[in-house]
Specification:
Layout: H1 5-9, E1 13-14, H2 55-59, H3 82-92, E2 108-110, H4 119-123, E3 128-131, E4 134-137, H5 144-156, E5 162-164, H6 171-175, E6 180-183, E7 187-192, E8 206-208, E9 216-218, H7 225-233, E10 239-241, H8 251-258, E11 261-265, E12 278-280, E13 286-289, E14 292-296, E15 305-309, E16 314-318, E17 322-324, E18 329-331, H9 341-351, E19 358-361, E20 367-368, H10 372-386
Parallel strand pairs: 1-13, 9-10, 10-11, 11-12, 16-19
Antiparallel strand pairs: 2-5, 3-4, 6-7, 7-8, 8-9, 13-14, 14-15, 15-16, 17-18, 19-20
Helix pairs in contact: 9-10
Bound molecules: iron/sulfur cluster (SF4) and zinc ion.
Length: about 375
Amino acid sequence: MATSSAIQRGSLAPLSSVTHTTAVVEESRCFSAVARKSKPAKFSNYGHGMQKLTFSSLLGGGQRSLGQGFRNPEQQEPRKAGSEIVAQAVSTRFNRKARRAENVEGDFFVDHTCIDCDTCRWMAPETFSHLNGQSAVHRQPQTPDERTRALQALLACPTASIRTETPPKDIKDAQNTFPLAIDPETLPGVYHSGYHSENSYGATSYFVHRPERGNILIDSPRFTEVLAKRIEQMGGVRYMFLTHQDDVADHAKWAARFGCERIIHEDDVRSSTRDVERKLEGSGPWTLDEEVELIHTPGHTAGCVSLFYKPHKALFTGDHLAYSRRQEGLSIFRGVNWYSVSKQIDSVRKLIPLDFLWLLPGHGRRYHFESEADRREKLEELVAQES
Ligand code: SF4
Ligand SMILES: [Zn+2]
């Protein structure tokens, strides 16, 4: 596999050389979480008999907090006026779990707690769409495959906002599909973890299956023993790579469960990540092993790092770079830049020669470039447009 000229120019520092600094800075105010009360479950038991399955436990269980300050970088609508917010609050105050009027009739629906993270819309676009600022069911699933995708979205939803009128008896089958293969043909061994966490603003987590060298969990899904057992069957987790400060969610629980080594850049260490095992210093790149390079891509935050998985030309970018469906092209989502737009553009420029074809972000949509020329052209276009 060819190595990018950017990497060839840099000095490769083995991870063993990084220090375990205890530097801790204030949590990001922009993404500060506001915990709210737990939501009532519509169904307390699905009647599987083996255990008491609450709606919450089926979704991954554990502590759930609601309504953080997250804003989907793709949000199109202006913020609501104060009077509109008050009116909505009054009308939904006691029934945030009620079915939104925008849903079509039928079993599946989205309630008012949706944080508009976009996950269900890319997981099951035939069922969910964006209507009046949140997701809604625009068409009920028509086929077994569509139903499976709708249930997968229900399980992945970070706020348990997707629900059904009747208990889904096939929910366990849907649970057993995670982690989800992304594209077995061009991306074998790379999975979508599912179970998005509201504590990472609904960001996507990935699982890279590498029986020989050790599996990697990229950013943190919501911790659930259901997913942990599935991952355990696939060999557990050796490394947990955290792209940046925003998408760390339940990292401590995953580390406790698998005894994995967590990796984050020291510039993105916060109070909740001060105990992470490995902290990257400087500007890298760093090498995990011959298959994996870590590339410093500052801009969205100072310590953003992308993971380059060379065997299948996949680049995991966190919130540095993604495909935007609204913009119909690549985007750096300037509206959610917490550090430096100019540095983020420089970091995109740095990726132009890197030999990747898959772009796998935390927020925004994934993208598969047709060719190296296509990647170069699209990245160059983005740099020109944003500069
Ligand atoms: S996954 Fe949940 S929170 Fe995200 S857009 Fe869909 S319903 Fe809303
Ligand atoms: Zn972020």
